[in-house]
Design goal:
Structural class: mainly beta
Distance between the termini: 30 Å
Order of helices and strands: EEEEEEEEEEEEEEEEEE
Shape: globular
Radius of gyration: 16 Å
Oligomer: single chain
Number of strands: 18
Helix content: under 10%
Amino acid sequence: MTKKIIEINQNIYENTTFYNQNIYIINGEIRIKTGTKLTIDDNTEIFIKNGLFKDEFNANFIRCKLIFESGSILKADKVYFKACDSKNCVVKVAENGGIYFVGTSLLTEKDSIATNQDSPFSCFNANLINTSYLGSGDLTPVVETTEYLSNIDDYDAISVLGVSEDEWKI
């Protein structure tokens, strides 16, 4: 059975389920908003697109990433995150922004993503989060030039910010 490709191009504001008969492509800086629950079927694959993209809001170059905001909820068993290229093919190169889990316990900030202690508690539950080639290194060349973007820092595969043990069950 061929899996259907579903591109995620917008933030998720409503409770949503990702089903294992699909492959989900994170195409942009995608946020699971406060108060929103993302349920992920067992053995679902989620690809995060590699490369630099212009952010439509502030015209900065960004990397695709998935951000679980303070007060968001993840419910999953086993989920697989992988890097992909512009044709949605899995690659063994890490040139994306990775995944962020943002809690409410500590006031902290990383990569311009900050916790919000006024949010309801975050709740991140999964038996396994498997990642392949997420994140990126420092200083990426601008496409078709030899210039470097000094404002593009390295990104970790997974970032956990201000999350207490009551919020994290992974």
